[in-house]
Design brief:
Blueprint lengths: L1 H13 L6 H6 L1 H4 L16 E7 L6 E7 L4 E6 L5 H7 L4 E3 L6 E3 H24 L4 E7 L1 H15 L10 E7 L5 E2 H18 L4 E8 L14 E2 L6 E4 L2 E4 L38 H13 L7 H10 L4
Parallel strand pairs: 3-6, 6-7, 7-9, 9-11
Antiparallel strand pairs: 1-2, 2-3, 4-5, 8-10, 11-12
Length: 314
């Protein structure tokens, strides 16, 4: 499971980049080098950018790439990366979902509606131009909520985007609650119906909560929100555990210490929200910031980045 989730998580993290993803992929060989921003992000190799987009609400960024070796489209949406987006996170009032099957977080819903046309256009382009057998939807934090709302539309047949026989994979990391119990029930009915029609392997869901991450506990249960995933996954440093369905709303668990000498002892003092998939996401953000300040559009940006790097800890 960890092997399946980790590569997808790389796409979710890169969605936060303030440097255009077009530049990142065009200069990937250099950016994968030690101490450069994408060090270790090997899942980005051999991908083709289909579309990069920003929503009309909060300028929510995201992108879609094609992975030819896997015949896979990947839709990645950023989580909260600005004050504008954070304000939408705080709008926890309920909005009636168009299905009339429940309610959705109004802030997340507005963000999704603002980016939905661009995502749909990108997905249509991807299916039209490439040989696709699977589409992957991924996001971290609020991006996970957007991913769920997108999957909800895909499973319901909205827009007729999914060709028959195409597998759908959802992988979210540190996602908050997005809808109420009625909407969650509708989600699970759609998943069951899709798997019944196309096969159990045509839909896979990975909803990962991490050690010391408080975001999956929001919005509070007292406000009526619930998690979509019936059986989530719990990441304790480098070990991934199944969370029983009976505990699906819980986010903090006690895990017996590993006796393996290789087991890390990092406690994530800043919280676990930025430490998914065995990587320090905060380091990526710092390095992307240094890259942005190196004026990547101008020649010689590599040397300017190295100079900035030498003045700071990687």
């Amino acid at each position: 499971l960890l092997c399946a989730a980790v590569p997808t998580g790389q796409f979710a993290e890169v969605a936060y980049s303030t440097v255009p993803v077009e530049f990142l992929l065009r200069n990937l060989t250099t950016l994968l080098e030690p101490n450069f921003p994408l060090e270790g992000y090997h899942a980005l190799q051999d991908v083709t950018l289909v579309s990069a987009f920003k929503g009309t609400v909060g300028n929510l960024p995201g992108y879609l790439v094609y992975r030819p070796l896997l015949k896979q489209l990947v839709v990645a949406t950023s989580g909260t990366s600005s004050v504008k987006l954070a304000l939408h996170d705080l709008r926890a009032l309920k909005h009636r979902h168009p299905s009339e099957r429940g309610n959705v977080h109004s802030g997340f819903w507005d963000l999704y509606q603002g980016v939905k046309p661009a995502i749909f256009a990108a997905v249509r382009k991807g299916f039209a131009e490439y040989d696709v057998t699977e589409i992957v939807i991924t996001g971290h934090s609020m991006g996970g909520s957007i991913s769920y709302l997108l999957c909800l539309d895909l499973l319901s047949g909205d827009g007729g985007l999914l060709p028959s026989g195409v597998a759908l994979k959802l992988a979210v990391f540190g996602s908050p609650r997005t809808g109420d119990a009625s909407l969650v029930e509708y989600w699970r009915e759609l998943v069951a119906a899709y798997q019944k029609s196309h096969g159990l392997d045509t839909f896979k869901e990975y909803s990962v909560k991490a050690y010391n991450d408080g975001v999956p506990a929001l919005p509070p249960l007292q406000l009526g929100y619930r998690h979509f995933a019936k059986e989530s996954l719990y990441l304790d440093r480098t070990r991934l555990y199944h969370i029983p369905a009976s505990e699906s709303e819980h986010s903090i668990f006690s895990v017996a210490p590993s006796t393996e000498a290789s087991s890390p002892s990092v406690n994530f003092p800043r919280g676990g929200h930025n430490y998914y998939n065995g990587r320090d996401f905060e380091r990526l953000c710092r390095r992307i910031w240094w890259l942005a300040n190196a004026v990547p559009d101008d020649d010689g940006w590599e040397d300017r980045y190295r100079k900035r790097l030498s003045k700071n800890k990687p």
